């Protein structure tokens, strides 16, 4: 039921198949290796030697050497014939192959070979079914071991990914402004502080370690993040604006009345229009014998009595209607022709 020779297809970039060679202890045994490189036949043209390593169940390592052999189909292989020492202990033997070509060395991943005691077949009988079942159990055990190793590798990858995520989160959490630098404060890596207008970032967890003194921008604990710019001195004094007056330009405040005596305020457009409307209305009234209004004397003087009535106009003028404005009270001084006076009502 046991084979004395196994032809194994191995790839230097992949783990071997689940086939586990089984040999009877101290019986003749041979391994023939067909070697591939990522699915393509490995070039053995410059082959110099092949080393087969056996790690026995108790940890002892036995080294043997294979020979180059060309099969009938022209494929070059490595043939290894067991010598006996590598079969001294029953159990699983971890086996690996290293091929030397010129100055290069390639190795395949270790695989298992099972060595069974020479009384094995007698103890279980010569039933082929039992032998086949034992091979199946051994194959399943190998697959289970590989699956367990794959799960362990996956768990390790997940753990490493979680560590990376936690580290990234810590960097994100710590990269923030802490405020003004204080020598006695404990800072975490990537904390940001300010000092004299410049900002600095912590390169490691630190306390009681000073910032560099510019122009030095980095020490063991701190690195300059942003340097303070110029103060902006040396510019002009700017524009000084003062209140306006009758002697100086400046700010003018608007006043919406006609009663203010200020010399730094200006009347609003609304009050100027109101004043203009009143003057227009007032100057449109023509004086008559019954109402105050405008008169235009045709002489050079106007004589007004104590009652405010025109009693005489120089040059023989009339006191009838006309242009001008009647004035009450004391008689006015001489007026040029066309002069105007206003009556105080």
Give a structural overview.
With 345 residues, this protein is an alpha+beta fold. The protein has four domains: 5-120, Immunoglobulin-like, CATH 2.60.40.3350; 177-226, Carbohydrate-binding module superfamily 5/12 (Seminal Fluid Protein  PDC-109 (Domain B)); 239-283, no CATH class; 285-345, no CATH class. Helix content is 19%, strand content 28%. The chain has three helices and 18 strands. Strands 1, 2, 3, 4, 5, 6, 7, 8, 9 and 10 form a ten-stranded mixed β-sheet that branches. A hairpin with a 5-residue loop joins β17 (302-304) and β18. The N and C termini lie far apart (148 Å). Mean pLDDT is 78; it is low at 120-127 and 315-345.
Order of helices and strands: EEEEEEEEEEHHEEEEEEHEE
CATH level-1 class of the largest domain: Mainly Beta
**What is the CATH architecture term of the largest domain?**
Sandwich
Main sheet?
10 strands, mixed
How large is the count of helical segments?
3
Radius of gyration: 59 Å
> Which structural class do the helices and strands define?
alpha+beta
This entry's quaternary arrangement is single chain
Helix content: 10-25%
Instruction: Count every beta strand, where a strand is a DSSP E run of 2 or more residues.
Output: 18
Low-confidence stretches: 120-127, 315-345
**Tally of structural domains:** 4
Could you say which overall geometry the principal axes of the C-alpha atoms support? rod-shaped
Intertermini distance: 148 Å
What CATH calls the topology of the largest domain is Immunoglobulin-like
Mean pLDDT: 78
Q: Give the percentage of residues in beta strands.
A: 25-35%
